[in-house]
């Protein structure tokens, strides 16, 4: 990288340097050929090469110490006058060229890239590579930053990188302006770095995401790879070579909509577990069963039709293409006018999906349909987060925002990998059981979206508990991980959702269930409860207090707890 900077600078400054060298050479040569005069005014030999070069060096640099070593002859003074003007022109040209070099985008990019590579190489904490930092990437970066997880991003739009730099992150987000589909850019971002934990290919280009997934799997197969995709064919391609998680936002939302019609309490539970932690509970969605109208039969519309038909929903499609498949009931039109909507049966339908790729058309469809049938359940597709104000003003019953769907899925996979496994088990639950768990979570977290996290009982993630289970040879119940380390008789606002042991799933395990080394647990609760539980998992003294009620602190820790900031974190061991 340093060599690249040197050669770029040398190439840009080649002409000015040549001009300066020629001016200095001619100036020195002239002084060595023109005769001088001595102190008595008699002719004297010309200046020596050393004296001539010395004089030109300080005169051409506009310093000027006078005539050395003696007074000049008229001819020498005339030549020096020429030298002065030539040197001013040469240095002006060189300075202007140097300023242009400093502002050269190519050189700036090389310098920024070199600084980026050095900072990535120096990272010592776990981080994720974020390929694409548009609306989706920014949502993910903010959420990971709140959880204390570092992010390295590759984005080809320089404007988005500048927006990223003015964001209020607790830790710097390292950004590289480049194409994530280029393998060398992935390597610069730390694809083979020992602290890299995964790659998120979430650009709005399916081909670029496919390239990122392939490169990541080839160059570092141990990394977790999450890819965003909209095309079913590219989705199948990604799954064929072992991409860990593929998020198709069209299919995901269509599946959620179909499940919400069939089992609204199931979707309510999923909505709680995948929301942004700490925010107010999302509005409940209960789409009705009956006849539906789908406006737009692109990739999103096709996904909605497939999933609704799988649930036995009767539907009619409105699309301007007259050559659609004969397998669907089709009305030619866009849905922005009343006549196609009436022919599709909007007046007797229970719901409408405005799913075109134009936000204004979708709003127009929804407003027209609502005038014809005020009782309609309206599902809107929002393509751009920048139009949020318009969609908020309309206040649809259900809004599909691709960036939010992808961000929520990616965050769930990063922070709690067991969550997707738990969702698979949820599909077999009766609606009443899902309703009961959703109610418990709402009450537990004070009408806020719960935080979901996973824990593996090993030496890395739970050293204190792992040591107890391995060394003490004493049983330990799951309920002990719910005790407050500041007051062991109180219970933390969290609940276990899943325990995975030897490939077997234990859903909503009871507090009496005994733990074993290697168990994987999925919890939901408040952020403060997670922090308190981390103390129990990590600190042996805290764990002993929770298990036995005995304060096993050393005298130094006790002194710090009484007088220092250690006691201010709110999680210290309670003194009896």
Automatic annotation (TrEMBL):
- SUPFAM superfamilies (UniProt xref): NAD(P)-binding Rossmann-fold domains, Voltage-gated potassium channels
What is the membrane topology listed in the Swiss-Prot or TrEMBL record?
A: Multi-pass membrane protein
Superkingdom assignment: Bacteria
Q: Which InterPro entries match?
A: K_chnl_dom (IPR013099), NAD(P)-bd_dom_sf (IPR036291), RCK_N (IPR003148), Trk_Ktr_HKT_K-transport (IPR050721)
Sequence ranges assigned to domain RCK N-terminal in this UniProt record: 125-247, 289-401
Subcellular location per UniProt equals: Cell membrane
Gene Ontology cellular-component annotations = plasma membrane
Identify the keywords attached in UniProt to this record, alphabetized: Ion channel, Ion transport, Membrane, Transmembrane, Transmembrane helix, Transport
- Keyword hit for Cytoplasm: no
Can you tell me where the transmembrane regions are? 17-37, 49-66, 78-102
Please give the biological process terms from Gene Ontology that the record holds: monoatomic ion transmembrane transport; potassium ion transport
On whether Ion transport is a keyword of this UniProt record, the answer is yes
Name this protein carries in UniProt = Potassium channel protein
